[in-house]
Amino acid sequence: MFALPQTSFAAEELLRMTTHPIAWLCIVVFTLAYIAVMAEEKLHLKKSKPVILAAGIIWALIAWLATGQGVSHESLSIAVMHDLEEYSAMFLFLLVAMTYINAMEERQVFDSLRSWLIRKGFSYRQLFWVTGVLAFFISPIADNLTTALLMGAVIMSVGQGRPAFVTMAMINVVVAANAGGAFSPFGDITTLMVWQADKVEFFQFFSLFLPSVVNFIVPATIMNFFIEKGRPAALDDHSGIRRGGIGICILFLVTIVLAVSFENFFGLPPFMGMMTGLSLLMFYTYFLQLRGLTSSRPIPVMGEGKKEEDLDIFKRVAHAEWDTLLFFFGVIFSVGGLRYLGYLEVISETMYTGVGPTWTNIAAGVFSAVVDNIPVMFAILGMSPEMDVFQWLLITLTAGVGGSLLSVGSAAGVALMGTAKGRYTFLSHLRWSWAIALGYAASIATHFLVNG
């Protein structure tokens, strides 16, 4: 999950037409599109559709306005290609990461972990902590969405007939998954954006580990006292890792090392390391096929008897989360259009210069609970305010964990609402937002205490 370094436009390259009615119309278009994104679950409309349409409309309006102001087509093309450069690097990195995750899912790596947890027969309170801790440490490697779905499946399996437990355990998983991604450059798209923008060095992100732990521990400790006692019956669930699954996990770690190495030692964009890692995965599955080790157990296919399912990397690429990939396209080009109009410059001057970076970064984290943290972080990087490493780490922390305040504030929360069948809802999460807010405040205080 990546974005190229944010190369800010020179001042004279911005259009600076924020008071023009057409510029206002662009704001309206983006607002309506994002309302549709937030209402995705109710509208059953994929989130990529409204933002892609908004991006097209915004840039068409900008072109109309700019042409009337004597701006050349070449200048407009340069502005659009600037956003394309950022998107293409992020797209390639995301595609590789998703392909690896899909390959591990096909090899039943995550199913095996879920099966092991179910068979252990933990008590409700132990399961609450085990799923939370695992979510915290898995999300820095896998994305918070995959982590939440994995832990959510465990909770739903063992929490049948215990809706109160399911609710609190899923809230805990959402908070843990978001907190775990905040201290790792690979844990969240926002952290990757900050790293790739050269605002924070790779190893400096790990100074957010303690604040992230506090963000998870505070609400979890409060909710722990409300978890019912008792132990669910151990379920007979046996799922093993398919052949080649462990090798894919190892290659995924090698690919992450390649991405870091290409950046730190060769000065190359990290997506080159990720694409190199994808080639290793392709060769690995090729040799597995030569040895006949990629087929899984026969699966019944209606009208065709038995069919062998094999590990085809191009099928894993096809199964990537294309809605998410195209959503990022719409966000980057929509926000890029507003930046070209000069809105981000105005906001930066008002907030970071007027209010100050500390309160602005804290408020941005709260705002990310309503609006996704990706456009929030992308907008801040587009502003490129003058901040030291401490403040860039602060916005990385707040944007990463702020989404936990509401169930709709992160992909993890939205996904679990869709799979929990009414047991984890917006209102049930909202009832514990006060505890999550205490963790949010405590994590910020810890950051000031440890890294200030």
UniProtKB/TrEMBL annotation:
Transmembrane segment boundaries: 22-39, 51-67, 87-103, 124-142, 202-223, 244-262, 268-287, 324-342, 362-381, 393-420, 432-450
Primary location group: membrane
Keyword Disulfide bond: no
A GO term from the CC aspect: membrane
Subcellular location(s) per record: Membrane
Short name of any one Pfam family annotated for the protein: CitMHS
Domain of life: Bacteria
GO molecular function: antiporter activity
Keywords, ordered alphabetically: Antiport, Ion transport, Membrane, Sodium, Sodium transport, Transmembrane, Transmembrane helix, Transport
Topology with respect to the bilayer: Multi-pass membrane protein
InterPro entries with a match to the protein in the record: Cit_transptr-like_dom, NhaD-like
GO biological process assignments: sodium ion transport
Domain Citrate transporter-like, residue spans: 53-400
Family per similarity comment: Belongs to the NhaD Na(+)/H(+) (TC 2.A.62) antiporter family.
Protein name per its UniProtKB record: Sodium:proton antiporter
Provenance organism: Endozoicomonas numazuensis
Taxonomic classification: Bacteria, Pseudomonadati, Pseudomonadota, Gammaproteobacteria, Oceanospirillales
